[in-house]
Here is the input.
Amino acid sequence: EDQVTQSPEALRLQEGESSSLNCSYTVSGLRGLFWYRQDPGKGPEFLFTLYSAGEEKEKERLKATLTKKESFLHITAPKPEDSATYLCAVQAASGNQFYFGTGTSLTVIP
Amino acid sequence: DTEVTQTPKHLVMGMTNKKSLKCEQHMGHRAMYWYKQKAKKPPELMFVYSYEKLSINESVPSRFSPECPNSSLLNLHLHALQPEDSALYLCASSGTSTLDEQFFGPGTRLTVL
Here is the structure.
């Protein structure tokens, strides 16, 4: 069964304190892994797509990496405006659906 | 235009009402999606339209009825909803196939009384 697990559920960081969020997946053939940021009451905002193990993508303070079993979202020197829920989703080769993880709620304290 | 728009932003309806949610995109995307999201939970897929044809229906109750009049527009018709249907309803679209990253609208906050 295709499954996506994110950890930790919640993370509190001091401003400038770097950390990583984890997304573990089990799918029968990965088509793509997607990272989104969601602010309360709003739709998810697309961040990155990763397609194959070893791939990395960067955007400002965020860097996403992918292995055969998991993806990491590294946040370097976060700022309070980085506070949000970060969702990962995988798309399996077997179908068109996205499988979302339950998200990591990030709070960055000034 | 690089966004997905949804109307209305908020909707309150009684269990006997009929209402519709509307979603629009002008990015030339050919796949469109409806998701339901409860508080502190991830989005749950409801329907997928690919090239204006319904390709996925995730066993959604018939009180939710999707419609895709053209490649830019997606509607969700609501009838005889239950209070547990209260949620944020999100529309998304993706490029030329369902393999691409999805871009989400801001959502419609639905409350069923």
User: Anything to note?
Assistant: The first strand of chain A starts at residue 3 and ends at 7. The mean pLDDT of chain A is 93.
